[in-house]
Design a protein that fits this description.
The chain has about 190 residues and is an alpha+beta fold. Helices cover about 45% and strands about 15% of the residues. A hairpin with a 6-residue loop joins strand 2 and strand 3.
Length: about 190
């Protein structure tokens, strides 16, 4: 009987350990373990960050106080990095958006950091991606018109000593996928 109990206990510990490892793998963050409810909260906040705590709690089946504690924990642990507004570019005077692929001459940290700091100071820059491949940066730009784009690219990219090559592509339309990235929409694996 003792051997059977030990065997069952070992199997239980093994199963628990495998599930914990699977949860950590699914979440991708060893220091944070998110459960199904956390994923539900994140799913709703990603779609509407202005949702009231009361409404969010009802949607995920929690008491309002418990929901607030969870959201605050997600913020404190850095899972939620901020709450942002989705702005209408046209209302801000942005009549044209483009993607610029930029290749640097050298990949020394000082030159990469210098170029990145330059980009962060440009009001026309919407988003910056430091990427691998034949180009080093993919930069989303918002300007008033094609002349503004031309002037910006010439002045902010081609005249910089660290830049080797620039290509721009106009953005016709943009869509946003509000689903959670990665394994976030497979929260059932985390239970």
């Amino acid at each position: 009987m003792t051997k059977i109990c030990l065997l069952l206990l070992s199997f239980y510990i093994y199963s628990y350990t495998i599930n914990l490892i699977r949860i950590i793998f699914v979440v991708g963050l060893a220091e944070r373990i998110l459960d199904r409810t956390d994923f539900e909260i994140l799913r709703h906040l990603r779609k509407n960050a202005r949702i009231s705590n009361k409404e969010l709690a009802e949607l995920v089946g929690l008491a309002a106080s418990t929901c607030l504690v969870r959201v605050r924990r997600l913020v404190r642990e850095g899972v939620i990095r901020g709450f942002h507004a989705d702005l209408d570019a046209n209302a801000l005077g942005v009549g044209l958006e483009a993607l610029a692929s930029v290749r640097l001459k050298r990949h020394a940290r000082t030159e990469v950091d210098s170029f990145l700091n330059h980009l962060l100071g440009c009001k026309e820059v919407i988003r910056i991606h430091h990427v691998s491949g034949s180009n080093d940066f993919l930069i989303q730009i918002g300007v008033s018109d094609s002349q503004h784009l031309r002037d910006f690219v010439l002045g902010s990219f081609t005249e910089r000593t660290e830049v080797d090559h620039v290509e721009t592509a106009l953005i016709y339309e943009t869509w946003t996928n509000w689903k959670l990235p990665g394994n976030g929409d497979r929260a059932e694996m985390a239970d």
